[in-house]
Design brief:
The structure is a single chain. This protein is α/β, with parallel strands linked by helices and 325 residues long. It has one domain: Metallo-beta-lactamase, Chain A. Helix content is 24%, strand content 33%. The chain contains 8 helices and 19 strands. The strands form 4 sheets. Strands 1, 2, 3, 4, 5, 6, 7, 10, 11 and 19 form a 10-stranded mixed β-sheet that branches. Strands 12-13-14-15-16 form a 5-stranded mixed β-sheet, covered by helices on one side. The radius of gyration is 19 Å and the shape is globular.
Length: 325
C-alpha cells in the first residue's frame, strides 16, 4: 500500500489517499486538527498524565499547559470496482448543537470536497455509521427546506443492530439525546430509506467486514477492508488519540469494556499486515502499529510525492461497477 497527497487546488487543501491496486481510501476530514479540551474526552486524566502524554505522543498533538489535545474528525471514502463506501458521517452542516459550539450550525466544504475528488452524493453505495454519536452521523442528512433528507440517496445506510436499538430506546426517553443528532441525522434515515441494521460482525460488501468494538458506545463497530496488500482497519472511537497507545487506562465511556476492546483491536493490528485508519487522529492518518515494551506506537506510512486525482483508475472502477449493476 502507498499513501499519496491529493491536492484540491480549487479548495486550497490536500487530502491523504491510500492506494492498493484498484482500491483507494481517501481521508476527507469534516473538521481537522482542532484543539479539544482533554477533560471533555478523558474525564479522569490528571495534569501529570497530560504532561507525561505530551512527552510520549506525536509532537504538537498534546498541549499540557493549555489542557488540550489535537483531534480531527475523519470520514473515509472507499472506492473499489464493486462499490463506493463512506465510513462515518462526521458532524454535518447546519445542525443545531448549542452545547457543542464547534459543531453548531456549521457551513463547510465537505460535499464540495467529495465532488472535487469525483464523488457525487448520488454515487455513494454504502454509508457505515460505526456508531450513532453526533460527530459520526452528521452527514447522514442535509437540510432541504425545513426537512432533513438523506445526503446519499442511493446508499445503503448500515449500522449495528445493537447500536440502533440502544439509541432508539434512549431517544424515546430523552428526545434531545446525542446533542439532538438522533432527531436530525438518524430518525430521518429510519423514516425514509431506512437503516440496514446488521450483526456487529457482518460482512457488508466484498472485502468490507464489521468487527464488534463496544465500550465507547454499546454497539460500536470497527470496519476492516481487505485489499491485495493487506487490511485497512477503521478504528472508529476505539481510540481517540495517540496518547492512549502508551497508556491503555486512558479511556472515556464504559472503561473496562473500552480497554478490552481497544487492546483486542491493537493486538489484531500489530500482529498482521494491517494499516490503521483512525477517526480522530490528526494528519498523517494512515499508519501501522508497532509494539514497544508495554505500549504501542503509531507509525505513519510514508507519504509519497504529490499525487493527482486518479481519473483513469476511477473511470475503470466506475465502468466495472456499472457492468455489475
Amino acid at each position: 500500500m502507498k499513501v499519496v497527497r491529493q491536492p484540491i487546488a480549487e479548495l486550497g487543501i490536500e487530502l491523504e489517499r491510500l492506494e492498493s491496486g484498484p482500491v483507494t481510501v481517501t481521508c476527507v476530514p469534516d473538521m481537522a486538527n482542532v484543539a479539544w479540551p482533554a477533560q471533555s474526552i478523558f474525564g479522569e486524566l490528571s495534569a501529570s498524565d497530560l504532561e507525561r502524554a505530551e512527552k510520549d505522543a506525536p509532537a504538537g498533538t498534546v498541549d499540557a499547559a493549555g489542557g488540550t489535545v489535537r483531534l480531527s474528525f475523519n470520514c473515509y471514502v472507499i472506492e473499489t470496482p464493486d462499490y463506493i463506501a463512506v465510513i462515518d458521517g462526521g458532524i454535518g452542516d447546519g445542525k443545531e448543537r448549542p452545547h457543542r459550539p464547534a459543531w453548531h450550525r456549521r457551513e463547510t466544504l465537505f460535499l464540495d470536497t467529495l465532488k472535487a475528488i469525483g464523488i457525487a452524493a448520488e454515487d455513494v453505495d454504502i454509508v457505515i455509521n460505526t456508531h450513532l454519536h453526533a460527530d459520526h452521523v452528521g452527514w447522514n442528512t442535509r437540510r432541504e427546506g425545513e426537512t432533513w433528507r438523506p445526503t446519499f440517496p442511493n446508499a445503503r445506510y448500515v449500522v449495528s443492530e445493537t447500536e440502533l436499538s440502544h439509541w432508539t430506546a434512549v431517544h424515546a426517553a430523552q428526545p434531545d439525546a446525542l446533542h439532538g443528532a438522533f432527531a436530525d441525522s438518524v430518525l430521518p434515515i429510519i423514516e425514509t430509506v431506512g437503516f440496514e441494521a446488521v450483526a456487529s460482525d457482518a460482512q457488508v460488501a466484498v472485502g468490507l467486514k464489521l468487527h464488534p468494538a463496544p465500550g465507547h458506545s454499546p454497539g460500536m463497530v470497527a470496519v476492516a477492508l481487505s485489499t491485495a496488500d493487506g487490511e485497512v482497519l477503521f478504528l472508529a472511537d476505539a481510540i481517540h488519540h495517540p496518547l492512549q497507545l502508551s497508556d491503555n487506562d486512558i479511556v472515556c465511556e464504559d472503561p473496562e469494556l473500552a480497554r478490552t476492546t481497544r487492546l483486542a483491536l491493537l493486538m489484531q493490528a500489530v500482529g498482521g499486515d494491517v494499516v490503521l485508519a483512525p477517526y480522530h487522529f490528526p494528519a498523517p492518518v494512515f499508519g501501522r502499529l508497532k509494539a514497544e515494551a508495554a505500549s504501542f506506537r503509531f507509525v505513519p506510512l510514508d507519504i509519497e510525492a504529490t499525487g493527482h486525482p486518479q481519473t483513469t483508475r476511477r473511470a475503470e472502477c466506475a465502468d466495472q461497477r456499472r457492468t455489475k449493476a
